[in-house]
Design goal:
The protein is mainly beta. Helix content is 6%, strand content 38%. It is globular, with a radius of gyration of 17 Å.
């Protein structure tokens, strides 16, 4: 088919290292039949939340495929088709030792050598989203 490069719709994103939940992150999604890039807040906010985001304190930034159908906040967005793709160099998975020390493990795709040049391969992470639009 005819592939069109998505437009950067609105917002601002600066690449960063180890972005914490509630950071602005780049997100790719479909809007009215068009692919769109937009900067969005990391963490799913339920559509019925009416207070300020500062008052929102649920931990909704990490949904696993194994449990997506067990938590209503994710199930609603998933079945309404509110899905997106988050491009990233990688992400950190944390493990704890017996002494409660946390150890970060960086999960990423392998880099490919192309004629002497290394090329970064982005991960495309599946996500659910809500939007005020």
């Amino acid at each position: 088919g005819n592939i069109k490069r998505p437009d950067w719709e609105s917002g601002y994103h600066t690449p960063g290292y180890n972005l914490p939940p509630t950071s602005q992150i780049p997100v790719l999604f479909e809007k009215m039949g068009q692919r769109v890039f937009r900067s969005m807040r990391w963490g799913l906010v339920p559509s019925n939340h009416t207070k300020s985001l500062k008052e929102f304190n649920l931990s909704t930034h990490n949904c696993c495929s194994e449990t997506i159908l067990e938590r209503p906040i994710y199930t609603k967005a998933f079945f309404k088709g509110q899905r997106c793709v988050i491009p990233a160099d990688g992400f950190f998975e944390w493990t704890s030792t017996k002494g409660a020390e946390k150890i970060p493990h960086f999960v990423h795709r392998l880099e490919e050598a192309t004629g002497g040049d290394e090329q970064k391969n982005l991960l495309m992470i599946a996500g659910c989203m809500t939007s005020a639009d």
